[in-house]
Amino acid sequence: MNLEQWRSLTVKQLDQEAKQAAELHQAQLTKPPGSLGMLESLVVDLAAMQGTVFPRCDNVHISIFAADHGVACQGVSAFPQDVTAQMVLNFAQGGAAVAVLAKQMGANFEVINLGTVKPTMHPGIINQIIAEQSGDISQTAAMTEEQLLQGLQAGKQAVDRAIALKSKLFIAGEMGIANTTSATALLASLLELNAEDVTGPGTGVSGSRLEHKASIVAQALTLHQGINDPFELLRCLGGFEIVAMCGAYIRAAEKGLPVLVDGFISSASALLACKVNPEVRKWLLFGHCSAEPFHSKVLQELDVEPILMMGMRLGEGSGAAMAVSILRAACELHSSMATFSDAGVSNSGE
Ligand SMILES: O=C(O)c1ccc[n+]([C@@H]2O[C@H](COP(=O)([O-])O)[C@@H](O)[C@H]2O)c1
Ligand SMILES: Cc1cc2nc[nH]c2cc1C
C-alpha cells in the first residue's frame, strides 16, 4: 500500500440501529436514567461499534510495538536506550506491567520489535525490524517514506491478526526510550504550541535536564517546521512504534474493530490517525489520562473523556489495559441488570 491508499481508506460506519436498541434497553434497567454515568455511554458506544445490543469485551487483543529512537543520544530520557530492547524481552517473558494485566484478563498478547539497538531473540517476540533505530529528529528526519510505509503496515498486520483471532477490542501499546520527545514534538507541531510549554518528564527527567529536553524538542520543531501533512509529520518527527500505532488505528477503523487508546504516546498516534481521516475518531475509546502533563490537552483536542485518571505514566498499553475491567463491568451491568418490568420496580419515568 502507498500513502495515497492509506489516505483514501474508508472508515466503517457505526451501527446506529444497535446503538438505539442499546439506549432503549439501557432505559429499561432498574436505575434512574443516567445514574451509571459513563458506564452507560461506554456500553452504548461499544454497541454501536460491535453492532450488537449486548456488546462484550471478552476477547481483547494487545499489540506492543517497540522501537528505538535516535534522539535518545541527546540525553532526553531518564533511562538508557538499551532499556527498550531489555523491556521487549521482559514483555515476551511476561514480567512487564502490561504483560501481567494481559494475562489477568486473558488477552491475546504480542510484542513486535520494529527496531531496537540491542535486540534479543525470544520465540515470543515478533521481529519486524525496520532499522536499528529511527533518525535523531533534532538533526534529521526520523525515517524515509519506505520506512514509514513499513511501520504503517506493521500496525495494519497487528489489527488483521486481532481480527483473525476474533477479538472484540484492540489495544496498541508502545515501548521506546525517548519516545516522549518524539510524541511531544509531533503534538506541539499539530497543536502549534511551544516546546517549553508542552515538554514533560516522560520517564522522569526534571530540572535542567527537562529544560534540555525542551530545547531538543524546540530544535526538532525548527528543523521540521511548516509541515501540515500528518504522514510527513510522522516521517520527520515520529518513531516506528508511533507510526505503527497510527497504522493500526486507521486499519481498525476501516475494519470496524473498536480501539482502546492508552496514554500520551498512543494519543499522539491517535490524533495523527484522526488528521489522516477524521472518521477514525468514531472507533476510538480512551483508557486513561496519563500523568504526562500535556496529555490532558491532547485529550481535549480529541474531545475525549478518558475512562480512568490514576496518575499512571507507564505507556505499554497499561492504562488502556486497566480500563478493560471498567468496560467489562459496563457490559455486564447492561446485559445482566433486571429491567423495571422483570423486577416489578416502578419506573417513575413511564
Ligand atoms: O504513555 C504515557 O503516558 C507515557 C508517559 C511517559 C513515559 N512513557 C513510557 O516511557 C518511555 C518514554 O519515556 P522517555 O522519558 O524515555 O521519553 C516509553 O517507553 C513510554 O512507553 C509513557
Ligand atoms: C523500565 C521501563 C519500563 C517501561 N515501560 C514503558 N516504558 C518504560 C520505560 C522504562 C524505563
Automatic annotation (TrEMBL):
Catalytic reaction list: 5,6-dimethylbenzimidazole + nicotinate beta-D-ribonucleotide = alpha-ribazole 5'-phosphate + nicotinate + H(+)
Name listed for the protein in its UniProt record: Nicotinate-nucleotide--dimethylbenzimidazole phosphoribosyltransferase
Major enzyme class: transferase
NCBIfam families named in the record: cobT_DBIPRT, PRK00105.1
Role summary: Catalyzes the synthesis of alpha-ribazole-5'-phosphate from nicotinate mononucleotide (NAMN) and 5,6-dimethylbenzimidazole (DMB).
Pathway: Nucleoside biosynthesis; alpha-ribazole biosynthesis; alpha-ribazole from 5,6-dimethylbenzimidazole: step 1/2
Pfam families: DBI_PRT
E.C. no: 2.4.2.21
Catalytic site positions: 316 (proton acceptor)
Example of a GO MF term: nicotinate-nucleotide-dimethylbenzimidazole phosphoribosyltransferase activity
Keyword annotations of the record: Cobalamin biosynthesis, Glycosyltransferase, Transferase
Family statement drawn from the similarity comment of this UniProt entry: Belongs to the CobT family.
RNA-binding among keywords: no
Gene Ontology biological process terms, A to Z: cobalamin biosynthetic process
